[in-house]
Design a protein that fits this description.
By secondary structure, the protein is an alpha+beta fold. Strand 6 and strand 7 form a beta hairpin. The radius of gyration is 22 Å and the shape is globular. It starts with 5 loop residues before the first helix and ends in a 7-residue tail after the last strand. Pfam families: NIPSNAP (PF07978). Belongs to the NipSnap family. InterPro entries: Dimeric_a/b-barrel (IPR011008), NIPSNAP (IPR012577), NipSnap_domain (IPR051557).
Length: about 375
């Protein structure tokens, strides 16, 4: 997976000019204007496809480099097996390399290994001592507990990231003021390393609940979420921003989510076009089954459609799943969705997942000028 902060680093390492394309988290000024479907030029699907192809090629190259790095690391660890201290040092160096390159999140086990035998405070987990079978039950019982825990922390979610989805209902006559205010504040907060947060993207709803703005943020687990809130709300300009924001919106809704293990959130990209946020409310207890079927369905859909990410809510609107897609335009959306039915596996996914749904909602959205994914 292409590192999520890659585009931001390119921006900071290249001299700025009036012709430079805006990169993610850039503080460059732009004309503050709410986007609209009328901004989309007709018959530009070929341009979208070309950008998509380049994006996927770059993604594949970064994955290849990461696998090569992991292979070299494994060889190094094997050669130094007789020296535990050296092996530990090698592993630490590898982790630091991947994190520095923004590639640590690509491993499905990233951030999990160190939690297998210890608690977050470094203490040994219960059930590993000599008397564990008497205190914590049988090994079979403990294994069942571990399977239940793994079903959510490892099977469903990639544990390194927590995402929030923030939805603002903006007063119709205050949209321009809102765009100006948030367009200055959000990129500023995302650009400050001490805030420990990244803005995945910002969008305005064009079909659905109009004058609704959707923002998705990314944090380093819940610890990062707390640290980010603390840092941002203690910024000297926060209270003035918050005061102005409250005069422009009628409501604010926030949910905390995790991304599905099989569908990592896209890194920053600028393909153009429109976005569709599809939200599903599932019957309670069906999330694991949903994940199982969609893991196969996504493989089929990726042949004809460009996915951005998929998340399930952990705090907020429970039993809700969000899928975000990107298309060149609405006509291309129609064509790609119809084409999906010709791909083996997609029909079965629909057949098996529809009974799991209580209700569903679709929004057609346009990216904001500062959005890292646009």
């Amino acid at each position: 997976m292409l590192p999520r902060r890659f585009a931001a680093r390119l921006s900071s390492s290249t001299p700025s000019s009036s012709k430079t394309v805006l990169r993610s988290f850039s503080s460059t000024q732009w004309l503050q204007k709410a986007p609209a479907l009328s901004d989309i030029e007709p018959d530009q699907a070929h341009a979208f496809d070309a950008k998509q192809k380049d994006f996927r090629l770059n993604l594949s190259e970064m994955q290849r480099r990461k696998k090569e790095q992991e292979r070299q690391s494994a060889q190094s660890q094997s050669q130094s097996a007789s020296s535990p201290a050296k092996s530990s040092s090698t592993d630490s160096a590898q982790t630091q390399y991947l994190d520095a390159a923004g590639l640590g999140s690509l491993s499905l086990s990233a951030g999990e290994a160190q939690r297998k035998s210890t608690d977050p405070d470094g203490k040994k987990k219960p059930g590993t001592g000599r008397l564990s079978s008497f205190i914590y039950g049988t090994e079979e019982g403990r294994e069942m507990d571990r399977e239940i825990e793994r079903s959510f922390s490892q099977v469903l979610a990639r544990g390194k990231y927590v995402h929030s989805i923030v939805i603002h209902e903006v007063k119709p006559d205050k949209v321009d003021e809102y765009v100006e205010l948030v367009g200055n504040w959000y990129p500023k907060m995302a650009n400050m390393p001490e805030n420990k947060v990244h803005l995945v993207g910002s969008w305005r709803t064009e079909v659905g609940d109009c004058d609704q703005f959707v923002h998705i943020w990314e944090y380093q687990r819940y610890q990062g979420y707390h640290a980010s809130l603390h840092a941002i709300q203690n910024h000297p300009d926060f209270h003035e921003f918050d005061r102005k924001l409250k005069t422009l919106i009628t409501s604010k809704k926030t949910s905390l989510m995790q991304e599905f293990r099989f569908w990592p959130t896209s890194p920053p990209r600028q393909l153009g076009g429109v976005f569709e946020l599809r939200s599903y409310t599932l019957h309670p207890g069906n999330l694991l089954e949903w994940e199982t079927h969609w893991q196969k369905g996504l493989a089929a859909r990726r042949e004809v459609m460009e996915g951005v990410g998929a998340w399930f809510v952990q705090i907020g609107d429970l039993n809700v799943v969000h899928h975000l897609w990107q298309f060149a335009d609405l006509e291309e959306r129609r064509a790609r969705r119809e084409q999906s039915w010709s791909v083996p596996g997609w029909g079965e996914t629909v057949h098996r997942t529809v009974p799991l749904i209580q209700k569903m909602n679709s929004r057609i959205m346009m990216p904001m000028p500062w959005s890292a994914i646009s």
